[in-house]
Amino acid sequence: MTSLGDRLDAIHLRVRVPGTDIEAELRDRTDVVISFGDGGYLWLSERDLERYMASLARLLYTAWVRAYRDALPEAFRSAMDDPPDEQEQDFLAARAELREHGASKDGRITISAVDMHDITVRITPGTLQALSEREFVADTREAVTALLADRRAKVRELKMRYFG
User: What global pTM score does this model have?
Assistant: First the structure.
């Protein structure tokens, strides 16, 4: 029998921004790779790419939540459907206010969210001229990794506060 961790690590997701060739692929829970299709990166502006990246993030997070829930044993899924007690309600309310942030090491790409919703991507002007597609993808991966690490740390702290 596989562990929950093994099932979560095995989740492999791919999402695409509707009407484009821009895709994101998720493996091993946090490894995200962006692709643009043939030559798509060359024709984008920073503002368009900010919207596309935020859309990809929302699509990927939604797909992750579904896949995560499907990976849980039935007993956990049933328990999740039970109404939360007061302590759980307080935890969920505090988590809904979490502000997560991640940035590439060079600061060109930043991602912020509130409880992984209201996702905003900012790309410093001139980035697309300065970075190749491969470099942009690497910077995006750094920002995503930092965002997810920030979220994990903040959720862990909340769990300690509410559940000891």
Answer: 0.90
